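so my prof wants the structure for this chain in the tokens format not the other one, which i didnt know existed until like an hour ago. anyway here's the sequence
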Amino acid sequence: MSDPVHRPDPRENLICRCYQVTEATIRQAIEARNLRTVEAVTARTNAAGGCSSCYDDVQDILDQMHGSTRARRRVSPLTNAQKRTLILALIRDDIRPLFRLNDMDIHVLGVQDDQVFARTEGPLVGTTLPSVLTLKWHLVKMMSEACGQKMQFIEMNMLDRRETTDPN
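here's what i got, hopefully its the right format
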């Protein structure tokens, strides 16, 4: 999540990029139904039901709203450059062939701590088809294993899409 001193407006803070779910929507569902688990939030909002990159963010919101705390997340001793090298090799050798089977491609733009910024291309970009979400889930799992910590897949296309469809 972002710096607690300067938090973005929950109505605009996009948590789940796969399903375009904002922090406000997640908070409303938790409050209205007294939801206690990420799985319950997913059942109500779809957040964390795609690639799983936002799972920890949804858990953080639950913790904030219910006053819970969890153990600190594991942080990799690798530098951002080392993570990027591992992720690029992983994409080249394992992930890109799977994406291409689905007429898609992926390009890493950068790695910052636990976030991997990338663009995807192809006719299925932005869809919530199970095959696409499974590819993204597999990508996050493989990146997390390679880097030794939970990684987030920040699909820049989805952020761009939100900006062009947001009525504000």
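also thought this was worth mentioning. Residues 159 and 165 are 10 Å apart (CA to CA).
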